[in-house]
């Protein structure tokens, strides 16, 4: 059986950077807190907690404490509250996400209505919303465009959650451009996401089976799986090697392996080893 591993599989730049910052901070300073998980991957979260970083539900006053801002970013109110309570802030927000924050603040100041294409409850989207006091419209798919709200806009600036699927963005944008006189669009899907999605247009067609490795809570991993499954019904989303079922590979000659942006390389290598042992 031939195993092809996607070139883009595994940690993206933003995740690598966030983990490096987190581990360096706790090693040097200790007493590091974080609101939520650093990324959406159970193995990474366990490693971060084992290193001594404390995940908290709310900030409390104290001395000598550090707040680590996660790769997905945070609303401006979190920064303000942390400073008020005496935290030192270490910001591990992905630079690509920071760029979205800047675009949104600038367009908002210029008088544009702000539209975010993304998942309403995702941490990244909540962080983007929080840059402008949550005064923005979030649209998840073309069927959910609120025409009543959209048709009141004269000029809108549109940004995108960095891990969105391009086809979904294009479908929503087509609806918006029919109803808003002036639409300024910034394609803020990150390069790592585009590369992964481009590979998923090819690998599922060239292989009998596709394995997508990553957490079910990871938005970019789920989208990779959706793209793979749409092209090849024998595509499977797994978190670790333990999820592999040998019957998936009966009579299979070639399998493709990819992984979400927050999936550790160790997990990918364990899956490959398991496939070789079948």
Descriptive account of the structure:
The chain is of the alpha/beta class and 278 residues long. The protein has 3 domains: 2-10 and 192-276, 4-hydroxy-3-methylbut-2-enyl diphosphate reductase, catalytic domain (Cobalt-precorrin-4 Transmethylase, domain 1), CATH 3.40.1010; 13-93, Rossmann fold (3-Layer(aba) Sandwich), CATH 3.40.50.11270; 96-189, Cobalt-precorrin-4 Transmethylase, domain 1, CATH 3.40.1010.20. 40% of the residues lie in helices and 19% in strands. The chain is built from 11 helices and 12 strands. Strands 1-12-10-11 form a 4-stranded parallel beta sheet, sandwiched between helices. Strands 3-2-4-5 form a 4-stranded parallel beta sheet, with helices on both faces. Strand 8 (155-160), helix 7 and strand 9 form a beta-alpha-beta unit. It is flat and about 60 Å long.
Instruction: Give unreliable regions as ranges.
Output: none
Return the domain count. 3
Give the helix/strand class: alpha/beta
CATH homologous superfamily assignment of the largest domain: 4-hydroxy-3-methylbut-2-enyl diphosphate reductase, catalytic domain
Instruction: Indicate the CATH topology of the largest domain.
Output: Cobalt-precorrin-4 Transmethylase, domain 1
CATH class of the largest domain: Alpha Beta
% residues in beta strands: 15-25%
Fraction in helix: 40-55%
């Amino acid at each position: 059986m031939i195993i092809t591993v996607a070139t883009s599989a595994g940690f993206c730049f933003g995740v690598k950077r966030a983990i490096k910052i987190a581990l360096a901070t706790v090693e040097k300073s200790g007493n590091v807190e974080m609101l939520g998980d650093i990324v959406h991957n159970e193995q990474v979260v366990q490693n971060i907690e084992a290193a001594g970083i404390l995940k908290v539900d709310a900030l409390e006053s104290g001395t000598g404490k550090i707040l680590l801002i996660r790769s997905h970013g945070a609303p401006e109110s979190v920064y303000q509250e942390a400073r008020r309570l005496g935290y030192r802030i270490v910001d591990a927000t992905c630079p690509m996400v920071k760029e979205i924050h800047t675009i949104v603040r600038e367009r908002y100041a210029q008088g544009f209505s702000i539209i975010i294409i993304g998942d309403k409850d995702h941490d990244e989207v909540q962080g983007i919303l929080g840059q402008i006091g949550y005064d923005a419209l979030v649209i998840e798919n073309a069927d959910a465009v609120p025409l009543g709200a959209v048709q009141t806009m004269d000029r809108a600036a549109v940004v995108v959650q960095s891990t969105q699927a391009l086809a979904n963005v294009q479908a929503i944008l087509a609806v918006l451009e029919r109803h808003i006189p002036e639409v300024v669009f910034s394609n803020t899907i990150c390069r790592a996401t585009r590369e992964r999605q481009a590979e998923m247009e090819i690998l599922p067609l060239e292989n009998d089976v596709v394995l997508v490795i990553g957490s079910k809570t990871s938005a970019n991993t789920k989208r990779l799986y959706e793209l793979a499954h749409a092209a090849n019904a024998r595509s499977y989303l797994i978190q670790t090697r333990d999820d592999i079922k040998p019957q998936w590979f009966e009579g299979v000659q070639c399998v493709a392996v990819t992984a979400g942006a927050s999936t550790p390389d160790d997990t990918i290598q364990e899956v490959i080893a398991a496939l070789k042992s079948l």
